[in-house]
Specification:
315 residues, alpha/beta, two-stranded antiparallel ribbon, 12 strands
């Protein structure tokens, strides 16, 4: 359970001052900064934060030495060491607080894209989680290395068109399924893992962010954060795409709280995966005549993972 409880209403939270200042250089319609604002809004009044940030879109667009867009303390980490850095900072804080040299309450939150989380920074993240540092690692998952040219990552979904898995006569896009990182982190037996995205009034993401921040020990949040350039959608469609990701069960909303699997939302009528794919230019080749079997394979993988999740949550 979270270590503190707060009496504020959700409306009160939404009206709190922003901890990510305007004026950063992220793209219009980007999911990364939406995720950051939503997570930081879950910090309680009076609590300070140290923000870590693995190299990526968010880092290059919200930080230009010596200035950052964050109102809290900020550390730019290399791609591969965001987890280790924040684990070290959290350890130093505990020592200084024990010695009476620090009085304020600090929370430790690291943000990373899927490139710096699923791939390059995974060993650092895994180590920090296994050591159970009292920190939150938030992955804003946009499904590719967007900052350096939309190359595929292990978070890229099957059959997506990227610059390193280009669609053409010899290729149907990325051939492999995406890595299920939230399940992998849950297998680390850490206190809290949550998966969310931007739907309705952000209540799901807000509750999970607050629980992650105020649960003692290591916590991980995986947030689907669409990228207009890499996914190729109209910027105004971001909320609809996120909703379709949930309603098709491509991106289910769940959490693992001290080992207990909890399904937060089950669609009344599960939509076909085509409804999610057709909104994104990276999948337009799937709708050409003769490629019906590719959508069937995609659907089969979504169904398999959904059934696995239902099983985990029913145990």
């Amino acid at each position: 359970m979270p270590e503190t409880k707060n009496k504020m209403t959700f409306k009160d939270y939404m009206n709190k001052p922003e901890r990510l200042a305007p004026g950063h250089r992220m793209c219009a319609g980007c999911g990364g900064t939406i995720a950051v604002r939503a997570v930081l809004r879950a910090l309680h009044e009076g609590d300070q934060a140290v923000i870590g940030n693995a190299t990526g879109c968010l880092e290059v667009s919200s930080f230009m030495y010596p200035y950052t867009a964050y109102t809290d303390s900020y550390i730019h980490n290399a791609f591969e060491n965001a987890g280790a850095t924040m684990g070290g900072v959290e350890t130093a804080y505990n020592i200084l607080k024990r010695k009476g040299k620090v009085k304020d309450n600090y929370k430790f939150i690291t943000f990373g894209g899927d490139g710096g989380t699923y791939d390059i920074g995974f060993q650092s993240l895994s180590g920090a989680m296994e050591r159970n540092h009292d920190m939150v690692y938030v992955c804003y998952d946009n499904g590719a290395y967007m900052n350096t040219g939309i190359q595929r990552s292990s978070a890229t979904p099957m059959y997506a068109d990227t610059t390193t898995t280009p669609v053409g006569k010899e290729s149907d896009g990325k051939l492999q399924n995406r890595k299920d990182l939230a399940t992998i982190l849950a297998a680390h037996d850490i206190p809290y893992v949550g998966q969310s995205t931007f739907i309705s009034n952000f209540n799901d993401l807000h509750k999970k962010a607050e629980k992650a921040i105020y649960t003692k020990g290591a916590a991980f949040l995986n947030v689907m954060a669409p990228c207009p350039r890499g996914w190729r959608y109209d910027t105004a469609d971001i909320m609809e795409i996120c909703k379709l990701g949930v309603e098709t069960c491509y991106w289910p909303l769940f959490e693992v709280d001290h080992g207990q699997w909890i399904l937060n939302y089950e669609p009344k009528k599960k939509l076909p995966i085509e409804d999610f794919l057709i909104k994104q230019g990276r999948f337009k080749h799937l709708f050409k005549p003769g490629n019906e079997h590719l959508i069937e394979e995609f659907q089969a993988e979504v169904d398999r993972r959904w059934e696995d999740l239902l099983y985990n949550c029913s145990r």
